[in-house]
Amino acid sequence: MEALRNHVQHVGHAVHGVNYDSKWLPPSKTERLQFSVSPYVSRTSLAADAGFKSTILAECPDTVSVIPAAHIYVEALSTLHQEVRRLADPIATKSRALVQGAITRHSEAAQEKIPGLTAIALDGERITEEVPLFLEWDDVRLKLASKNRTLRALGKSYVSSWPSDA
């Protein structure tokens, strides 16, 4: 999928063709006719891109169904993001507490609400670097972490407009 993304960004299209299918359901009866549309990527079209990685191309079948491949890829990215959040969370939580504590102390000393602070690096009396310290972006991190759960079994999922009880 990374190679396909690169191909689409620099050379061509993500979809080289579409397969159409129909079948009666359940298979032993003719109660309802199911139609499907499945976009695919063609190995031949990818091979025409001189920049497409030959090692990846060697692993590709003649056609790759785009939707299941994209589902599996997004599910893997979701799992990776969850792991990064798991590893970063203890450091982020401790850092947030330190910044919040400093803001609280300065607010109490100033007897007014202070939205944030600035950390400075000094060379003697000369300021060499300034870093703003606010919690608003960390609030966004926390909100996104709670909103974006890990996607499970996305590669086994599909969309249907037919009611499941029909």
Mean of residue pLDDT values: 91
Oligomeric state of the chains? single chain
Helix/strand-derived category reads alpha+beta
Alpha plus pi helix count = 5
User: Got a strand count?
Assistant: 5
Distance between the termini: 36 Å
Helical percentage: 40-55%
Main sheet makeup: 3 strands, antiparallel
Write structural notes for this entry.
The chain has 166 residues and is an alpha+beta fold. It has 2 domains: 1-61, no CATH class; 66-157, no CATH class. Helix content is 46%, strand content 24%. The protein contains 5 helices and 5 strands. It has helices spanning 2-10, 43-47, 54-59, 66-110, 136-147, and strands spanning 17-25, 32-42, 63-65, 116-123, 126-134. The chain has a 3-stranded antiparallel β-sheet. A two-stranded antiparallel ribbon has the order 4-5. A hairpin with a 6-residue loop joins strand 1 (17-25) and strand 2. The two termini are 36 Å apart. The mean pLDDT is 91.
